Structures are given as structure tokens and as C-alpha cells.
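Quick one, C-alpha cells below:
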């Protein structure tokens, strides 16, 4: 359901992209949970803020085909904070490398979701197709032909690209 209470049908693949991105954010949160303080608290807070933003603000706009730029700003702030961390032990180096890999996966999945929001047939093209179909139907109706020929002609025009 969408926030307005009605049913919202996602484009094919969008729901799967959202689930994958959410899973990558959860894995990234788990990775930064191994960081020492105060880096852990800062990175976890930034991820929580990003997640709330996407759910409460960005997703309702994206359902309308609008991609707000604030999400990218939040990801950039997280990236800067992540890159600022300096591992001090071998274990922290391994966690850091894993976190960077998970962050890159998150970025890729986020970009896929945003791409799916951006792609699609613009509304003006749908109006053009609809008006063209009505004009074709009107022209076919104006022909003085028998019903079977009219139906055949209508079917042929219907399936033309």
C-alpha cells in the first residue's frame, strides 16, 4: 500500500531492487557496528538517518517519478565519514575492507533502484499513443466495409508497432 492508503503497483523489478538495497544497508550497518567508538555511533546514526529519509521522504516522491537530491547528499556524508576512519589493528583493517566492499555494493544497488524510478515511458508519449489509437479507430469506423473486414482491419491496426 502507498502512504495515501491506496494500492501502489511497483514497476517490475523495483520491489526486488528495494529489497536488495535494504539488505545491503542492513549488512553495512552490521559492518560498522564492529567499529570502535566514536566512529561506530556516527556511522550508525548516518545510516539510520538515510534509511528514515528514504522511507519517509524519498520513496513517496519516487512513486511519483521524482528523485530528490537529498539522498545523494546523505550518502556522500556517510562516505566521507567512512573514509575518515583509520584502522589501527589487523582486525580493524579486515573489517574496514569488508565495509568498503559492502558500501560499494550498496551504492550499486541504490543506483539500480534510482535508475528504475527514472526509466519508463513519459506521460506525454502515453497520451500520444492514446490519441493515435482513437484517431485510428475513428478512421476505421468511417470506412464503409462489412463487419468481418472491419474487425480484421481493426485487429491489424491494433497490433501495429
Amino acid at each position: 500500500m502507498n502512504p495515501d492508503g491506496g494500492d501502489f503497483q511497483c514497476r517490475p523489478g523495483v520491489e526486488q531492487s528495494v529489497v536488495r538495497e535494504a539488505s545491503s544497508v542492513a549488512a553495512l550497518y552490521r559492518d560498522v557496528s564492529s567499529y570502535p567508538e566514536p566512529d561506530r555511533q556516527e556511522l550508525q546514526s548516518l545510516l539510520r538517518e538515510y534509511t528514515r529519509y528514504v522511507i519517509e521522504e524519498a520513496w513517496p516522491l519516487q512513486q511519483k517519478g521524482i528523485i530528490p537530491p537529498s539522498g545523494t547528499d546523505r550518502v556522500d556524508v556517510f562516505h566521507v565519514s567512512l573514509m575518515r576512519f583509520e584502522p589501527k589493528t589487523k582486525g580493524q583493517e579486515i573489517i574496514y575492507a569488508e565495509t568498503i566492499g559492502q558500501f560499494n555494493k550498496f551504492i550499486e544497488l541504490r543506483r539500480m533502484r534510482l535508475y528504475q524510478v527514472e526509466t519508463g515511458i513519459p506521460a506525454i508519449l502515453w497520451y500520444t499513443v492514446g490519441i493515435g489509437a482513437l484517431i485510428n479507430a475513428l478512421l476505421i469506423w468511417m470506412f464503409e466495409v462489412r463487419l468481418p473486414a472491419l474487425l480484421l482491419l481493426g485487429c491489424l491496426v491494433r497490433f501495429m508497432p
